[in-house]
């Protein structure tokens, strides 16, 4: 599975509608509105890189209100849940 983080600049007066329209696209797992340099961040998960070429410019980029996108492809995931499971060897501590 390929994960991409898409930073999205959106028209200010359409952010809620734009975010929902992006969230409704197959392959988009999450959309966050945020403060900072971008208006929305979308997490995209697809099976192949070729799907990104269709999904991001042809679908996300065409959503009304989207002004610009900047895509970052993830190599590896690091989270506290992943770290805990990596060290869990199934021994109960009781």
TrEMBL record:
This is Transcriptional regulator. The lineage of its organism: Bacteria, Bacillati, Actinomycetota, Actinomycetes, Pseudonocardiales. Residues 7-76 form the Transcription regulator AsnC/Lrp ligand binding domain. It holds the Pfam family AsnC_trans_reg. It comes from Saccharomonospora marina XMU15. InterPro entries: Dimeric_a/b-barrel (IPR011008), Tscrpt_reg_AsnC/Lrp_C (IPR019887).
């Amino acid at each position: 599975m390929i994960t991409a983080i898409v930073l999205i600049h959106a028209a200010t007066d359409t952010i809620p509608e734009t975010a929902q329209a992006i969230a409704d696209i197959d392959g988009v797992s999450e959309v966050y509105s945020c403060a900072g340099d971008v208006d929305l961040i979308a997490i995209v998960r697809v099976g192949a890189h070729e799907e990104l070429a269709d999904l991001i410019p042809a679908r996300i980029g065409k959503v009304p209100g989207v002004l610009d996108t900047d895509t970052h492809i993830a190599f590896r995931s690091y989270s506290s849940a992943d770290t805990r499971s990596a060290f869990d060897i199934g021994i109960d501590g009781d």
